[in-house]
Amino acid sequence: MRKFLALLRAGLKSNFGLSVLRHRLLRQKRDLWMVPLVGLALVSLAPVMYYYFRLLKSVHNLLAPLGQQAALLTFGLLAGQLLILIFGLFYVISAFYFSKDLDVLIPLPVRPFQVMLSKFAVILANEYLSVSLIVLPVLISFGVLGGRGPGYWLEAALVYLLLPVIPLALVSVLVLVLMRFVNLGRRKDALIIVGSLFLVVLTMMLQFWVNRSSRLEPDSAALVRFFSSPDSLLQKVGSSFPPSVWATKALTGGLSAAGLAQFLLYAGVSLLLLIGMAAGAEALFYRGLVGLAETSARSRGLTGAEISRRISSGRRPIRALFQREWRLMNRTPIFLLNGTLTVIIIPVMMLVMAKAGSKDSDLTSLFRMLSSRNVLLSVLVSAGFMILCGSLNGTASSALSREGSQFWISKVIPVSPRDQVAAKFLHSYLIASLGIAAASAVIFGQLKIRPVNVVPALGLALAATFILTAAGLAIDLARPLLDWINPQRAIKQNLNVLIAFLVDLGFLALLGFACRLLSRLGLAADSILALLGLVLACLAVSSWYLLGRFAEKRYPAIEI
User: Fold this and answer.
1) What does the alpha-carbon distance between residue 326 and residue 336 come to, in Å, rounded to a whole number?
2) Which residues lie below 8 Å from residue 191, measured CB to CB, with a gap of 6+?
3) For residue 190, how many C-alpha atoms fall within 13 Å in the half-sphere facing its CB?
């Protein structure tokens, strides 16, 4: 137990780096500019959370007369667990098999399950932060609006602590099996990517099948039977992942026998999965690591001499550096899956939701009604969806950090910082454009939004994403994280990615407030969209110019 706690303590210190941050801020008086920036990012998050709480209140008040308000709780818990289940796959692979500290940990006199559980605990700590903005408001709203007593808040805290355990343990077992069989040969990285994508597709197909098989028939008798039971809606919502139903019934049941039984089921399954994961670690963990370092050594980035030779041979510097960014992303499975797949997964989830119901699903009908009755709102919602799909991937805000200790190459090659940042920008914007294209396909093809609304939304999304990509690059340029030992930390556990995420949400909230104000002033929808497009275009040009100036100033000052 003492060895495990020592591993856990070292992993948490390495993961969060609070001691290093405290030393840089308080002792060295460096990065002091981060304090007001983080404060500003948190302030920008306030309007988003305000509207989120208002939405939760409206849904609760809508469901309460039907006795179905527990479905709100199920939806929040299910959303958090499904996000962990899908994205946790990449974090688990990175932490278990691509950490640079494995060379130090493996020779230590500790059991494989102790190493794996310590890394699992670090991932848990990160997931608590990742899903907090989604799940905690739901738990708080349900407790406050329902007038719940102290027993609810105690159980809510315990349910939240157990929330990531089941999905992450399931993912960990799958990863142990996956890495045991794909970690071989020169094509190891390609096999890891293909295997990961297969697991994601399998999860999506299972979700689609469950939703299709459990949909409600539209006859009146079925509707009467459905709403006669207070648990019918929560059962339907949580049918795709039963642990969310167990947690909901534990919270609604409180300290009663039924509530405690559901909580014991929820906690018991979590414990059994942890035990199974530990047993699997003893049998498979170190076997999956065999040959990992040797095969990884063959996949290397371009050296400074190679880049200089290519540049001197006549290839345009920005083009050569763009290809370097592309190869760096593709040769590291964690970077590729976290960057590229993230921009696809949200549109795919929206497509599954739209396809899961009847032929003309509620989601499709809602978008059609929105498009026909309020053109401005339809365009803005579509543009916001495209921007979210394009921007929330962390590619731009980790562009320099992903180079890690190899950043010295960027310092010595004979290419100006402006051109280097331009290549990183083009690569990040290409990834973002892929997300916008996927979102546009879902909006136009499945949700049946009219082209007259999709086209202006696409233009607004491209301009806004241009600005947000430049902002993300500027944030990472200001404080790149280059001393990571785990590639996951460069993109998942990078504070720059979180700051950029908050900036994105604040920027979208600011645009929403501006459009609402213009609408109240009596401007027509076409005028508002034209003015918004003009402002975004001017900001895009300005952001490109300022990014280049900032790169020229910051590159010489970055320490390796």
Assistant:
1) 9
2) 182, 183, 184, 185
3) 5
Start-to-end C-alpha separation, the chain: 37
Separation of alpha carbons 210 and 199, rounded Å: 16
Residue type, 395: T
Q: How far apart are CA 245 and CA 262, in angstroms?
A: 9
Provide the 8-state DSSP code for 28: S
Amino acid present at 249: K
Structure tokens given for 491 = 């993109």
In whole angstroms, what is the distance from residue 74 CA to residue 64 CA?
A: 14
For residue 167, give every residue at least 6 positions away whose Cβ sits within 8 Å of its Cβ, in sequence order, or none. 81, 82, 84, 85, 88, 241
Q: What is the pLDDT of residues 52-86, one digit of tens each?
A: 888 888 888 887 877 778 888 888 888 888 888 77
Q: What is the pLDDT of residues 426-482, one digit of tens each?
A: 999 999 998 898 888 888 776 667 777 788 889 999 999 999 999 999 998 988 888
CB atoms within 10 A of CB 270: 20
Query: For residues 333-349, b (16+ Cβ closer than 10 Å) or e, as one string?
Result: bbbbbbbbbbbbbbbbb
Per-residue tokens: 299: 């996949």
CA distance 84 to 78: 10
The pTM assigned to this predicted structure is 0.65
